[in-house]
C-alpha cells in the first residue's frame, strides 16, 4: 500500500480562455477522490519557453496529496488534459496548448521513466514552474540533492503575477 504524499502539478494554458481553463482543471482535480487538493498558487503570465511564436502562458501550480502510484497520477492528469482539448503527442513541439499539466514534484520521490520524469526536467531553471511550486510547497527539496528549491536562482527570477 502506498502512503499519501505531497505532489505538485504545474498548470499552464495559452489558448482560449486561460483563466477558465485553469479553473476547470482545478475543479477536475478537486472532484477526483484520489486527490486531496491542499493549495493552489497564484497565477503568473509568462512568455513561452521555446517553440514557435505563440501567446503568453498563464501558469499556476496545485499542491495535492495522494496515495496513488506516480504513473496512476500521470494517467489522471493526462485525462484532464484530454478533457480540455489537449492532443498528445503535440502536433508542434513546444507549441501552444489549451492545457498543460505536468507532474513537477512528488515529495521524496525520483522517477526516470520514458513517460514520466520527476522531478520535472529543467524545473530548476524555469521560474514559470518553480515559483508556483514554491508558492504551494515553500519547503520543497530536490529529492536527488536534498537542496531546497527556494535556494535556486530561478526561484527569485522576476515573473509577472496576475489576478
Automatic annotation (TrEMBL):
<comment type="pathway">
    <text>Cofactor biosynthesis; tetrahydrofolate biosynthesis; 2-amino-4-hydroxy-6-hydroxymethyl-7,8-dihydropteridine diphosphate from 7,8-dihydroneopterin triphosphate: step 4/4.</text>
</comment>
<dbReference type="GO" id="GO:0046656">
    <property type="term" value="P:folic acid biosynthetic process"/>
</dbReference>
<keyword id="KW-0067">ATP-binding</keyword>
<keyword id="KW-0808">Transferase</keyword>
<dbReference type="GO" id="GO:0046654">
    <property type="term" value="P:tetrahydrofolate biosynthetic process"/>
</dbReference>
<dbReference type="Pfam" id="PF01288">
    <property type="entry name" value="HPPK"/>
</dbReference>
<keyword id="KW-0289">Folate biosynthesis</keyword>
<keyword id="KW-0418">Kinase</keyword>
<protein>
    <recommendedName>
        <fullName>2-amino-4-hydroxy-6-hydroxymethyldihydropteridine pyrophosphokinase</fullName>
        <ecNumber>2.7.6.3</ecNumber>
    </recommendedName>
</protein>
<dbReference type="GO" id="GO:0003848">
    <property type="term" value="F:2-amino-4-hydroxy-6-hydroxymethyldihydropteridine diphosphokinase activity"/>
</dbReference>
<dbReference type="GO" id="GO:0005524">
    <property type="term" value="F:ATP binding"/>
</dbReference>
<comment type="similarity">
    <text>Belongs to the HPPK family.</text>
</comment>
<dbReference type="GO" id="GO:0016301">
    <property type="term" value="F:kinase activity"/>
</dbReference>
<feature type="domain" description="7,8-dihydro-6-hydroxymethylpterin-pyrophosphokinase">
    <location>
        <begin position="93"/>
        <end position="104"/>
    </location>
</feature>
<dbReference type="InterPro" id="IPR000550">
    <property type="entry name" value="Hppk"/>
</dbReference>
<comment type="function">
    <text>Catalyzes the transfer of pyrophosphate from adenosine triphosphate (ATP) to 6-hydroxymethyl-7,8-dihydropterin, an enzymatic step in folate biosynthesis pathway.</text>
</comment>
<dbReference type="InterPro" id="IPR035907">
    <property type="entry name" value="Hppk_sf"/>
</dbReference>
<keyword id="KW-0547">Nucleotide-binding</keyword>
Amino acid at each position: 500500500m502506498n502512503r499519501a504524499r505531497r505532489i505538485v502539478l504545474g498548470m499552464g494554458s495559452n489558448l482560449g480562455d486561460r483563466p477558465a481553463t485553469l479553473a476547470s482543471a482545478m475543479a477536475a482535480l478537486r472532484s477526483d477522490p484520489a486527490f486531496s487538493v491542499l493549495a493552489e498558487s497564484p497565477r503568473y503570465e509568462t512568455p513561452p519557453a521555446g517553440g514557435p511564436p505563440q501567446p503568453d502562458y498563464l501558469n499556476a501550480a496545485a499542491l495535492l496529496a495522494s496515495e496513488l502510484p506516480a504513473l496512476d497520477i500521470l494517467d489522471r492528469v493526462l485525462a484532464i488534459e484530454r478533457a480540455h482539448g489537449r492532443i498528445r503527442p503535440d502536433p508542434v513541439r513546444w507549441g501552444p496548448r489549451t492545457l498543460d499539466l505536468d507532474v513537477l514534484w512528488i515529495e521524496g520521490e525520483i522517477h526516470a521513466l520514458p513517460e514520466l520524469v520527476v522531478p520535472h526536467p529543467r524545473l530548476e531553471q524555469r521560474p514559470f514552474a518553480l515559483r508556483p511550486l514554491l508558492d504551494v510547497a515553500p519547503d520543497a527539496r530536490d529529492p536527488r540533492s536534498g537542496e531546497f528549491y527556494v535556494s535556486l536562482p530561478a526561484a527569485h527570477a522576476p515573473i509577472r503575477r496576475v489576478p
